[in-house]
Amino acid sequence: MEKRVYFIAGDWLACAVLSAWAAWVARLVPATWPMGVEMVVGMGVGMLAAMVAMPPFLVLFGALEVMVPVMLGSMISSMLPSMLPGLRAETGALLVWGAGCGLLSWGGTWLADGWLRRRKTDGQ
User: Fold this and answer.
1) Residue 63 lies in a domain
2) How many CB atoms lie within 10 A of CB 10?
3) 91 belongs to a structural domain
4) Which of 33, 99, 109, 116 could form a disulfide with 16 if both were Cys (CB 3.0 to 4.6 A apart)?
5) Exposure string (b/e) for 45-76, b if CB count within 10 Å is 16 or more?
6) Residue 62 φ/ψ, nearest 5 degrees
7) Predicted pLDDT at 89
8) Taking the CB of residue 11, how many other CB atoms lie within 10 A of it?
9) Are the CB atoms for 61 and 11 separated by under 8 Å?
10) What is the pLDDT of residues 14-26, one digit of tens each?
């Protein structure tokens, strides 16, 4: 992953914004469905919402660096409305939780990339 500040800040922004957007869109999945079904459908809806809104970030910050953590973050954050039904009515809290999931997914992706690159250069 890129190590320049512009790209790191852009990746943070993309993960936070698009994961929050995915969580907000996923809350539109009917709450009357069983939780497991609602989580799977919400995850798909959230991923689709993130994919639709992703192109400006891809152009500015690079496709791979944005797409991998954003898709992971949108999958996780879009399951939130079904796991925590109280977040459906609290839009602000839902957006904060969604952005937090996006930032955590970015951090996990960043650590995994560093670990894989270290192993490659160590000859292991």
Assistant:
1) yes
2) 18
3) yes
4) 99
5) bbbebbeebbeebeeebbeebbbbbbbbbbbb
6) 100, 140
7) 83
8) 25
9) yes
10) 999 999 999 999 9
Handedness of CA 110, 108, 89, 48 (dihedral sign): positive
- Report d(CA 32, CA 44) in Å as an integer: 17
Contact 98, 21 (CB under 8 A): yes
Residue 14 lies in a domain: yes
Residue 78 belongs to what domain range? Answer: 5-118
Rg (CA), the chain: 15
123 falls within a domain: no
**How far apart are alpha carbons 6 and 54 in whole angstroms?**
17
Q: What is the mean pLDDT of residues 93-104?
A: 94
Q: Tokens representing 115?
A: 């670990």
How confident is the model at residue 1, as a pLDDT?
Answer: 67
Instruction: Please determine, for residue 121, whether its predicted confidence score (pLDDT) is greater than 70.
Output: no
| Residue type present at position 108 | G
Whether 71 and 43 have beta carbons less than 8 Å apart is answered as: no
Residue written as token pair 């796991």: 83
